[in-house]
């Protein structure tokens, strides 16, 4: 009987020490999942999703940064300018842009403009390293990306990402992206 009590007590005590270690792994995995979700939202040119994935403090800034990648009416003075700025512009997307501009259809123009970015820009997260979850509310990760614009050679950067846990999920929360 005493032996059973001692073993039960020891198992309970051990469980309290092991529980934080077991909880740390899902947090690290959740940080990785967040970075992958941000990569997808960036490539989809999904401004609302970028906002959802960003901490409250910097949401408006990150949404504005994403919006700034989307061409406006001013970017489309003449078709030859389009190919200079957006070398992978497809004929179908050009036709959509010109049709939307001719009809002065802002919604159709925006949709075609988003497609211009999708055709010309791509970001790939190539490595997520040094994930450090701090007190379950903050995390850091070193993220290496490869980005391509149009016909340019890929550009690889490594940066430190800061994340915060709010609204029941991890959120990108960099004051300024630090690139090394």
Structural class designation: alpha+beta
Strand content: 15-25%
- The helix count comes to 6
Record field, number of beta strands: 5
The major sheet is characterized as: 5 strands, antiparallel
Radius of gyration: 23 Å
On the 0 to 100 scale, the average pLDDT is: 80
Topology pattern, helix = H, strand = E: HHHHHHEEEEE
Extract low-pLDDT stretches: 1-26
Relative helix content: 40-55%
The termini sit apart by: 61 Å
Characterize the overall form: elongated
Report on this structure.
This protein has 180 residues and is α+β, with helices and mostly antiparallel strands. The chain is built from six helices and five strands; from the N terminus they run ααααααβββββ. Strands 1, 2, 3, 4 and 5 form a five-stranded antiparallel beta sheet that branches. Strand 3 (155-166) and strand 4 form a beta hairpin. The longest helix is centred in the N-terminal third of the chain and has 43 residues, at 2-44. Residues 1-26 have low confidence and may be disordered.
